[in-house]
Amino acid sequence: MSFTCKRCGATSHNQNDEERRYCGACHSFEDQLVPVIRNSMISGTDHTLWLPVTTQQLETYVDRRGLVQDIFPHLTAPEREFIQSGITPEEWRRFVIPPDEGGTPMDPTACWQSILQFIREAQQAEPDETNRELLIEDLRSLADWLERGGFYPKLEDPV
Q1: Apex CA 28: angle with CA 79 and CA 13, to 5°?
Q2: Distance CA 25, CA 2 (A)
Q3: Can you tell me the distance from the alpha carbon of 4 to that of 69, in angstroms, rounded to the nearest whole number?
Q4: Residues 6+ apart with CB under 8 A from 6
Q5: pLDDT one digit per residue (tens) for the chain, 159 residues
């Protein structure tokens, strides 16, 4: 006998936990979890997390009647991020450079626009070495992003 929590994925082999559908790792009862579905702004796919929230809390958030940290103070920061952006904790670890390394979430469309701007400027005048290095950095960032499974940039301005 075992019980696996829908919220955190921990497995308990305790008979009481299974009978009560209780997770000692995240202190959640299964009947108090709600499936929250969001579209990830990183991958563009829909994800579901089981969270201890109420329909009223979700409506308050959707209606923008408060800050996410005030509406859901009991959730972890990654769970609140999921509600806001659809980015799962797994995607955050996989695609976002840690803040202590000066990283910010990847925006492939903004990166593509930067590349296009460089090309337009290079057609007018020979680029200097600094701009050339910035272009190479943007190209590498976009290539790394795509290699890790990130979604393609929106191509609104063909060259």
Answers
A1: 120
A2: 14
A3: 27
A4: 30, 33, 50
A5: 888 999 988 999 999 999 999 999 889 999 999 999 999 887 788 999 999 999 999 999 999 999 999 999 999 888 999 999 998 877 776 666 554 455 556 677 877 888 888 888 888 888 788 778 878 878 887 887 787 777 777 776 554
